[in-house]
Amino acid sequence: MNDPIFFLRAKQLSLAELVALTGARPADGADLSPQVYGGAPFEEAEPGDVTYFAHPKRLHRLPDTNATACFVAERYAFAAPRGTAALVTDQPEQAFAQALAAMYPSALQEASLFAAAGVNPGASVHPEARLEPGVAVDPGAVIGPRAEIGSGTIVGANSVIGPGVRIGRDCSIGAQVTIVNALIGNRVKLRPGARIGQAGSPQNAARAATPQIGRVIIQDDVEIGANAAIDRGSGRDTVIGEGATIGNLVEIGADVTVGRKCRIGALAVIGGSVEIGDFARIGAQADVGEHLHIGFSAHILPQAGVASDVPPFARYAGSPARPLLRGLRALALVERLIRPKPPDRGRGQ
After folding, report:
1. Looking at domain 13-108, what is its CATH homologous superfamily?
2. Per CATH, is 177-328 categorized as 2.60.120.10?
3. What's the pLDDT score for residue 181?
4. How many angstroms separate the CA atoms of 219 and 230, rounded?
5. Is 164 exposed, middle or buried (0-12, 13-18, 19+ CB in 10 A)?
């Protein structure tokens, strides 16, 4: 059985084309005629592959690569073996990504898993739903009354789009996604299993008796990971700002506002009524309590437990979370206190 190839190569590139594409600098007099056909990590690369090096701790392994070309920072170019063309750049990983995107453009394009064009006969679309031309709907999907979906959007198998939901153009709705009580912008990506717009779990008896009549508003260019859950608002809308990235298995409570270009790592939990400023970062498995404010461009490190407001540009870590430097000083003090003291042998000994 042949190895399955999920992404077909659109073209191969010469080293001269790589240099022109990425702006990397070859060695003086280097032969730029060799072709590259694919990409791989430098430890696994074979002749015909392009790779990159950005891991100083593994510098001792770079001379063993078999790649035809390697994007590398200038200070490490000396370690590239003779048979590998060192292409010097300040951002090796970004240059490698550009090369792969040129060779495998289909890897960046969302497509129907059923290779469907239009509405598959196995999907259930309510007569009152409005789909613009160019929408693809895979088998088993359900689209409710008054739902509106823009052109170029793909709705994956067994996904459910509830009544009145509006989805913009060029979106990707993965398999088994549910969307209710939501307005979604353009070029939004919802990975498989995401849950959008359901009522959240009440934290107390009063909340349990209060109808949640808000919505979820997801602005343009947002990406939401697999099995993430975003609860609809109760007193106001839950809003996910333009360009935000939300990881797999993230839980976002009701009435939360996530600012533009925020990044929230996998398994993070954001309590109800939290406000997160633009460009903030929240690490994986972090827990942010209810009714807190995370400031502009603040950074919450992974596994932090946030129980108080975080000012703009601050870096918080630990549980309970505190400013990173303060936490490191406290840890150093504790280590000094618990460190065993050497035995006192006395002067005469």
Report:
1. MurE/MurF, N-terminal domain (3.40.1390.10)
2. no
3. 98
4. 14
5. middle
